[in-house]
TrEMBL record:
UniProt GO cellular component terms: extracellular region
Domain Fibrinogen C-terminal: 184-370
Organism encoding this protein: Bos taurus
Lineage, opening ranks: Eukaryota, Metazoa, Chordata, Craniata, Vertebrata
Subcellular localization(s) per the UniProt record: Secreted
Record's keyword terms, sorted: Angiogenesis, Coiled coil, Disulfide bond, Glycoprotein, Secreted, Signal
One of the GO BP terms on file: angiogenesis
Record's protein name: Angiopoietin like 4
Amino acid sequence: MRCAPTAGAALMLCAATAGLLSAQGRPEPPETPRFASWDEVNVLAHGLLQLGHGLREHVERTRGQLGELERRLGACGAACKDPEGSAAPPRAQANLVNPGGGDASPETLRSLKTQLEAQNSRIQQLFQKVAQQQRHLEKQQLRIQNLQSQMDHLAPRHLGHEMAKPARRKRLPKMAQLAGPAHNISRLHNGGWTVIQRRQDGSVDFNQPWEAYKDGFGDPQGEFWLGLEKVHHILGDRGSRLAVQLQDWEGNAESLQFPIHLGGEDTAYSLQLTPPVASKLGATTFSPSGLSLPFSTWDQDHDLRGDKNCARSLSGGWWFGTCSHSNLNGQYFHSIPRQRQQRKKGIFWKTWRGRYYPLQATTILVQPTAAS
């Protein structure tokens, strides 16, 4: 594969493609390891991120240079005419573009400007592709960090040849005691459980950006989200339990609770679930140590879908996996919409009432357990 002369960033991409094509023609060495080590994956992800940043800086620098040339050509268009409107001598025109001299006719200048505009358009397209790839690489790096964290938690159990036993199911306060509008903020703490979310009437917009979900929003006397940073501070770096209380439009209620580990902001507040819990919640693909779900919002895409932003496609911020397991921070509907496309944006818990049934009320609680 031969690379034609073109912009620097495009030439880099062409050269990289040529290298890949030539590599495919070489015979593979015998006994190639099937899986890369964690360090190799980390180095690769870091290198790809650095390449993305470098390409982005190159594109921005090239765009600046093209902008300067275009400005000088624009100045030439205004200055290359005498008071009677006749064209200035070619030497004067050329000096505006090339101070070192050289003849340039108006036709040459117009052709150059057209080429620069076309090149600028190609640079803009390349910039968008680089930005898109960079977002994908950042998501991949976050997934690698989450997998490493899972391995770190799994290693001590493997070394001791012990399997963690599921905690005994504890009795939860009834939803009616917590979902009523008359309670005050002191009742956010109930028997060691802390209420971190409540949905009941649609009075608060939950389609909020990352910073709002980090700090918290809403009214503790009604609908609210406590805030990821506050929840992480309550649970600390130890095993905990999370409980969800669900209510449909027919008066039915369901309570679930399961062990979790909540990471800090450096992991996008990842929620780590054990394999039995992940399976019970409808996940079909997870590692031997379980499932790690980073928190995502419409402006901070950390979900496990590489081709979609779940928070933007649905509504609200949540620990999305593949956009289809649950979303208790979705859009609130006062009645069930007829359109399926609209219903999918609502509050749902797939393994209870299904993917396209918007729930009437929810409460989420957390409780720290013994240090892990």
